[in-house]
Amino acid sequence: MFEAFDALMLARIQFAFTVSFHFLFPAFSIGLASYLFVLNALHYSTGKPVYLTLFQFWKKIFALAFAMGVVSGITMSYQFGTNWSVFSDRAGPVIGAPMAYEVLSAFFLEAGFLGIMLFGRSRVGPRLHLVATGVVAFGTFLSAFWILSVNSWMQTPAGFEIAPNGQFVPTDFWQVIFNPSFPYRLAHTVTAAYLTTAFIVGGVGAYQLLRKKRREDRPGARTMFSMAMWMAAIVAPIQVFLGDAHGLNTLEHQPQKVMAMEGHFDSHPDGAPLILFGIPNSAEKRIDYAVEIPKLSSLILKHDLDAPLAGLDTIPEDEQPPVGIVFWSFRVMVALGFLMVGIGFWSLYARWRGTLFSDRKLHWTAFLAAPSGLVAVIAGWITTEVGRQPYTVYGLMRTAESVSPLSAATVGATLLAFIVIYFAVFGAGTFYILRLMKTGPKPIEDDRPDGPIRTAGITPAPSIDDKFIPAE
After folding, report:
1. What does the radius of gyration of the chain's CA atoms come to, in whole angstroms?
2. Is the pLDDT of residue 101 over 70?
3. Where is this region: Disordered (predicted)?
């Protein structure tokens, strides 16, 4: 059944499938960890029960998303040894250390304090529990820091030399980590994770406001919807500027990726148009049925209407990325980004009019846009990774040179196994998360012990309904 594919294509499909599946969970959990810290801090400082209610609700969802992210990430990392052993052998001396630091620092930090965050509030007291929540949030950011550093090095390699045996050997660790594209990719990706969480939280809040029962029976719905819309109104416009800066950096270091994103098969010596829509025709090297704005691409990329822009006609054909995929994934990402900006501004207008919690059109829009962040980050990942092709290490090591010497049947069998297991296991987990979101937060009693209830001994811990006695 795999006669139409070779091992390279199947290995690429397998990695694309597993990393896309995996990326959904960190994109959600990075922002959700920070949101939990904010909720915990607000409850600690104000004592309002609504923040504790929301914290207890979202921490269950965070635990599930975090667990599925860890499991899916482990299987993805194994593929470096199974399907991409040549890449691992050659690039391992450079990327091995940052990936190990991600486990030793970020993951251990998250795992070490996760139990306290999930189960320890009544045992360690609200102050230390707040610290533990903050450490988990910092750990998720640190994890993104190391992984994005590795990915950015593959995009813009620096701080290395190639040994006689073909291995990439680090010569400057700081240049490896802080390579030219890393600061832009880190800011753009982490901000995207925060927006992803904001729109999921806003979607759940909007759903609770839309339900037929009285709105006062929906504890925390107004609070989480308001907080999410503040995030959308403030952060979504910032993300537009971060994306623009990232695009300019990409133009400097990976020009053919930008050419594919813009659909510029031909060079434009007197200003390039911005192609809004069209159908890429790679065989004829043109965009069919193009809808474009003259010279706007030059204005965006060069800040000059008449600035010349090179096209793919200046790049050897065997070094050009697949234009069709990159062209459309980029437009999906940008369109969803501007949708988020629009919803954020709409919420500001509704807030100014005093209709933030009664505007059902806004609630329906926010509810339907809940998964927009997840779609946007996958579209952005496709733009970044497919746009790097045909290289794994940009300009130095091709994807065809990186694959393990395996048969198509072997890779195809594991691909089928991944598909079946992923949809069974993670499908069940996702279904349970959606059920929790549908149910919504339930009001709980405010328990605010001043410190740990006990440090040793065999006295059973009190239940959540018991009154806590402050520690001496």
Report:
1. 24
2. yes
3. 445-472
